[in-house]
Give the backbone structure.
Amino acid sequence: SFTRVGNQPRRMVAKIDSLGNVLPWEPTITGVVVTTMMLRGNRIILAGRFEFVNGQFRNSIAEVDTASGKTTTALNIVANRAGLLCSINSIDRWQNTLVLAGDFTHIGDSARLRVAVIDTLTWRATSRIIDVDPAAVKIIVSGNQLFIGGASTVNGISRSAIASINLATGVLSALTISPSALSGISFVTYDMLLNG
């Protein structure tokens, strides 16, 4: 979570050209950190742990214009944990939805435990339930398959550190990867890279 880039004040996000020059693009973010971003047409989705973007309330996820940095009004997802500020750790696309992973328990008034699939037309949670415990740190979508890093259980079924679920059917795959070599010690997967 930086406050300067070069000699320019910038908080959490900055826009830099190919020559390394800091450009006059400066969304004002109030909070702790921006952990991930995604380009969506001429807009950028920002996610992390913050409360306001350009003076408008946004609960850890917001969309800003790539040219002006202004906050768009459409994306206003209320993700929370027992009514408190939460973190959104990772985002990815699947068809006409946005998949979120974080430490939230609700998306709006819909109970969603750490992973949620959001309709990008209504910005509401879809009916797909993917309850993850104790953490959802990183997600990657490949085809219809969602890979989740940090999961010990998904929808009550035991998995170790990484899990995979079909977003179309909701069926949890048989994928079981256990990086733990020491009895009684649990591990959290912080990042993943798909090869092929």
In short: The chain has a mean pLDDT of 90. The CA atoms of residues 15 and 24 lie 8 Å apart. The radius of gyration is 17 Å. DSSP finds no helices and 15 strands in the chain.
